[in-house]
Write a structure and sequence with these properties.
Number of strands: 6
Number of helices: 7
Order of helices and strands: EHHEHEHHEHHEE
Structural class: alpha/beta
Low-confidence stretches: 193-199
Strand content: 15-25%
Length: about 200
């Protein structure tokens, strides 16, 4: 069985500015760096065999801060990138999602990815990792919407528990998923290791 510890990157400049951040990127803020370093301390007693992360700078930097002074290999993967929001990339969230507007299927209509696209992409990446690292503890650093959709797939209705992705999957939160011929959600996104264990 492969044990995945899936982390959302730390706070970024676009998070602060309220801009949609999918395949476009922005650097971690000072708080984002601090979040990643604090999470690294929280996880100091957890042994990781390898770390996979999105190729986005914000995820790569978060992984490096979490694992600083630890001998854990970090492997980047485009398959772990955030959902692509197409024409909405870098736009202000309040302009796109005003008046409670939601896009239940996703963003293929404007050149991005539908939710099903990102679910398939991320799960395929995790299955490949599991095949290469069976019986391992794997740290994965990726993104809020990507995590939100895979958790919702395993726990239908999750997306309705909070009004925003930031509330559902906070910066530097951890989600735990096991894989053994199928995925099992162990812990929903939580800010510190061991909280909010599923019943």
């Amino acid at each position: 069985m492969t044990h995945f510890y899936i982390v959302r990157h730390g706070e970024t400049m676009f998070n602060v500015k309220g801009r949609i951040q999918g395949w476009c990127d922005s650097p971690l803020t000072k708080l984002g760096v601090s979040q990643a370093k604090k999470l690294g301390k929280k996880l100091k007693n957890d042994s990781f065999d390898v770390c996979f992360c999105s190729t986005s700078e914000r995820a790569m930097d978060t992984a490096q801060y979490i694992l600083e002074n630890r001998d854990v290999k970090i492997i980047s993967s485009k398959q772990l990138k955030e959902q692509c929001f197409g024409d909405f990339e870098a736009e202000k969230s309040v302009d796109i999602f005003k008046d409670g507007v939601r896009f239940p299927d996703g963003y293929r209509f404007c050149g991005g990815e539908n939710h099903s696209d990102v679910i398939e992409r991320v799960f395929n990446a995790l299955k490949k990792i599991a095949s290469e690292y069976p019986n391992a503890n794997v740290l994965v650093v990726c993104h809020g919407s990507a995590i939100k959709h895979i958790v919702n797939y395993l726990c239908p209705g999750f997306v309705n528990e909070q009004p925003t992705t930031a509330a559902l999957v906070p910066n530097c939160s951890i989600t735990r998923i096991d894989y053994n011929n199928g995925f099992k959600l162990i812990e929903k996104p939580h800010l510190f290791h061991g909280q909010q264990t599923l019943k």
